[in-house]
Write a structure and sequence with these properties.
CATH architecture: Orthogonal Bundle
Distance between the termini: 49 Å
Radius of gyration: 19 Å
Number of domains: 1
Structural class: mainly alpha
Largest sheet: 3 strands, antiparallel
Number of helices: 6
Shape: globular
CATH topology: Arc Repressor Mutant, subunit A
């Protein structure tokens, strides 16, 4: 119909999931900067998020972050220089190295974790227990088909 205004299309679910993720990430990043952790980039922070509690091999980090091994290595080099991570021998393979959080990385995590919990509490309060529980359950179930590292 000429002259009729087009109705905006609803956002796809991927974008709808990304918006709150980015809002949480921004809050955490701001808290870290305010606490003096201002010597890392968003790309480095996203790589550190993928570190396992017992360390992670560089190739696994690169895959999980969807970057090349060379990019991951460069980011880890930078993070190691600033004291956020350290490379240690992999006990299961003497030739391999694990990337682990170093003391500065653990100190940053002690700032970031409560902020993430605060954001989640705000979301829970906004959505209500039932809807928040459904959201968590749905996203957890989606990991089964979307997260090869789960």
């Amino acid at each position: 119909m000429p002259g009729a205004e087009e109705q905006p299309q609803p956002m796809n679910v991927g974008v709808l999931m990304f918006i709150p993720y980015r809002a949480m990430e921004n809050r955490i990043f701001a808290a870290l900067v305010a606490a003096g952790f201002d010597d890392f980039t968003l790309a480095q922070a996203r790589l550190v998020q993928r570190l396992g509690p017992d360390g992670t091999r560089l190739t696994e980090l690169a895959e999980a972050a969807q970057v090349t091994k060379q990019t991951a290595s460069h980011l880890v080099d930078q993070l190691e220089k600033t004291g956020y991570v350290r490379r240690t021998p992999d006990p299961s393979d003497g030739r391999a190295r694990l990337i682990r959080a170093a003391e500065r990385g653990l100190a940053a995590k002690r700032i970031a974790d409560p902020v993430a919990a605060e954001v989640e509490a705000e979301w829970r309060a906004h959505l209500g227990e039932r809807l928040y529980g459904q959201l968590r359950e749905g996203l957890t179930r989606l990991r089964e088909i979307t997260d090869p590292y789960a």
